[in-house]
Amino acid sequence: MLTAPLEQFQILSLLPLKLFYFDLSITNFTIINGLAIFIVFNFFYFSGSKNNHLQENSFYFSPNSWQKLIELVVELPSQLVSDIILTDNEKYFPVILTLFMFILFGNLIGLVPYTFTTTSHLFVTFTLSFSVFIGLNVITFKKYQVKIFSLFLPANTPFALALLLVPIEFVSYIIKPISLGARLFINLMAGHTLLKVIVGFSWSILLLEHLSSISLIVPMITLIVLFGLELGVALIQTYVFVVLTCIYIQDAS
């Protein structure tokens, strides 16, 4: 059992492997990330199956069970893309859906005991947020070219005021991917840390008292409530990340 709440975020080398000066070791981080990608891939693969529930070709196509399931999952990001991104939203849907599925399964896998939460690491969240940010800048520059710099300097701004506005606008623009990634990291890390503290407290009481002790009821009920709250946080943070990404795309369009 872990002795400290923050030990659950430690990246452990399970299969050491070094090639020249490169560390290619298999870690718990690698396995959980690979599992999340594997689940997302299989969702897309089985949802794209050409076989219906009768396992035969039919003019009146009936979706199989996997396709019915994924239709429920993709309904939310599909609605967000159509509602927030007003122009050419169809071409952004694959990216938004992939982000949504990866973050969602990464969050949910981390709720399983003795697993690892990859989205509680800044490396993962910043990789996602800065990838979105860089892509948006490429799209914006391709569409507006040098006019993109007008974001930092509103029209008809006096020179004296521009000296103040340009640094402020630049910092607020750069802070977007940082806040996007840090929000996901902080919420997941704080929630899992709190759960570990309550679990350790409940386990300590269990060792000191009998199973029938009434003092065990309060921390156990609190643990169940916090687990439900953490499940809600995992879903909400996925939703928030996707919503903000759609908003940034709309601003860049």
Describe this structure in words.
It is a single chain. The chain is mainly alpha-helical. It is built from six helices and four strands; from the N terminus they run E-E-E-E-H-H-H-H-H-H. The strands form two sheets. A two-stranded antiparallel sheet has the order 1-4. Strands 2-3 form a two-stranded antiparallel sheet. A hairpin with a 2-residue loop joins strand 2 and strand 3. Helix 1 packs across helix 2, helix 1 crosses helix 3 and helix 4 runs parallel beside helix 6. The protein is globular. It starts with 12 loop residues before the first strand and ends with a helix. The mean pLDDT is 76.
State mean pLDDT (0 to 100 scale): 76
Distance separating the two termini: 50 Å
Q: Low-confidence parts, pLDDT < 50 over ≥5 residues?
A: none
Total number of β-strand segments?
4
Q: What is the helix fraction of residues, given as a range?
A: 55-70%
Task: Note the quaternary state here.
Answer: single chain
The run of helices and strands is EEEEHHHHHH
Roughly what fraction of the amino acids lie in strands?
under 5%
Strand order of the largest sheet: 1-4
Helical region count? 6
Q: What gross morphology would you assign?
A: globular
Counting helices, strands and paired strands, the structural category is mainly alpha
Radius of gyration: 23 Å
**Sheet of most strands:** 2 strands, antiparallel
Topology:
Blueprint: E1 13-15, E2 18-19, E3 22-23, E4 26-27, H1 28-47, H2 65-84, H3 93-109, H4 122-144, H5 159-208, H6 217-252
Antiparallel strand pairs: 1-4, 2-3
